[in-house]
Task: structure prediction
Amino acid sequence: MFILGNLIAALATIIDYLLTIISWMIIIRALLSWVNPDPYNGVVRFLYGATEPMLAPFKRILPAYSIGIDFSPIFALLTVWFIKLFLVRTLFGIAMRLGR
Result:
């Protein structure tokens, strides 16, 4: 059971890192929207392409044109942080119990 506990802890760590990277990508995209970057820049295109699937559901629920402010990054960040708190902590808790 010790090996399974280590495997789950490693998986939780990787998920934690991935969710942290996703959070930073959403934050950077939100900051870029304030400065109107070059849409043909490779980094900007990658960032928009990588974060759009995460923001799209929130944009459908609360469209920016109705109030003039896009709140989708805030809701996406809250969702990512909830997943991080719930899933990662749960996996670490399971790993701790299996590691005994």
Remarks:
- Residues 2-98 form one domain.
